Amino acid sequence: MGFYGDAMTNDSTIAPFRIEIPQAELDDLQQRLARTRWAEELPADGSAAPAAGPVPPGWEYGVPVGYVQRLVERWRTGYDWRAWEAKLNAYPQFTTEIDGQNVHFLHVRSPEPDATPLILTHGWPTTVVEWLEVIGPLTDPRAHGGDPADAFHLVVPSVPGFGLSGPTRERGWDRYRVARAWAELMRRLGYDRYGAAGNDGGSLISPEVGRADPEHVCGVHVTQVFSFPSGDPAELAGLGEEERGKLAFAEWFTQHRGAYDKLQSTEPQNLAHALADSPAGLLGWHAQLLGEQLDPDFVLTNVMLYWLTDTAASAARFYYEDAAAAPVQQKSNGRGTTVPEPTTVPLGLANFAWDFQSIRTFAERDHQNIVSWNVYDRGSHFAAHDAPDLLVDDIRQFFRKVR
């Protein structure tokens, strides 16, 4: 099949899919990169007081020009999109229409016939590329020194509005609607009993898959539990010193590093015009979360999938839709505030060192069946890329408990 626009269907058909980017689009990208007009910035003379918190030197005002220039140079002269296109095309890919929306997904079945079906969900600003390092170990543990009993059949979809699923075409694609679509996708693929796992936005969506389809979901594994204070003073009074430190960091991050969330949750179209027109601008916007610690080609490939599909605007709208939908999904706690209904499907957390630090007191309020909670001394927000061994082992041990 051709690119995502050619594979749209009007029913529940599952169509084979292959990425085939026309050379003219790659040539246009090269021309745009060559004509980049760089933003101005203050000189790094050390005279400005750095922002409080763990901000890398030179990043006090946000993503620095030098970082974007280095990656644009790599993009123009050293990055090989065709190699990454072939890498993605080595996996079986498909599209189907669910709830009026095109959904792209990788479907990688294990050679072990009794493998556990598992749907993996990415977040922003990544794509299905986020999971490439763990596909082999999860689907074929026998070939990677593991126990074949730990094998998974993997379904790795592009969230509607992100990357290869293409732009969303109507309002309302929040985490709850995506979760219902995932339940339908797994039903359509014939999986009666399955697990869900995710990172970032996928850590918001995956618990909702369990809530939407509890009779079929055996467990949910996440890398963050995004549970925050409900407004009850007694809840804060009961926090220990370690949890207070985690809460202070979350508050600092929201105030000082949460620009993407504030804009995309309120008026996402404001920035969309620039991101649709400038690949360097798209890279700079996404780099506020991706950053220098990741492999440059991993960063560029994720950015490429947004650029080539023109999904910067629709991916940003996910934040707006999610913020608008959240109050509808909550109930009163009797004190003038609202709290989510707790999930009941077994939940497991793998919390990595350089990432949002989940607070168990709040997590237990929102999820009543936590069966695994592990904290690691390495790995970042993108652990499937920079700590895949830890993540794979954690997913395996969790699903041994629940499947």
| CATH class term | Alpha Beta
Largest pleated sheet? 9 strands, mixed
Question: With helices defined by DSSP (H or I, 4 residues minimum), what is the helix count?
Answer: 16
Terminal CA distance reads 35 Å
User: In sequence order, what are the helices and strands, one letter per element?
Assistant: EHHHEEEHEHEHEHHHHHHHEEEHEHH
Structure characterization notes:
The radius of gyration is 21 Å and the shape is globular. 41% of the residues are buried. It has one domain (17-32, 58-402): Alpha/Beta hydrolase fold, catalytic domain (Rossmann fold, 3-Layer(aba) Sandwich), CATH 3.40.50.1820. The protein has helices spanning 23-34, 65-77, 81-89, 132-139, 175-188, 201-212, 233-237, 241-256, 259-266, 269-277, 279-290, 296-309, 312-325, 360-366, 383-386, 388-402, and strands at 15-17, 93-98, 101-108, 116-121, 152-157, 194-198, 217-222, 330-332, 338-340, 347-351, 370-375. It has a nine-stranded mixed sheet, with helices on both faces. Strands 8-9 form a two-stranded antiparallel ribbon. It is an alpha/beta fold and 403 residues long. Helix 10 (269-277) packs antiparallel against helix 13. Belongs to the peptidase S33 family. This is Pimeloyl-ACP methyl ester carboxylesterase. Keywords: Aromatic hydrocarbons catabolism, Hydrolase.
Structure described in brief:
Helix content is 43%, strand content 14%. The chain is an alpha/beta fold. The protein has a single domain, classed as Alpha/Beta hydrolase fold, catalytic domain (Rossmann fold).
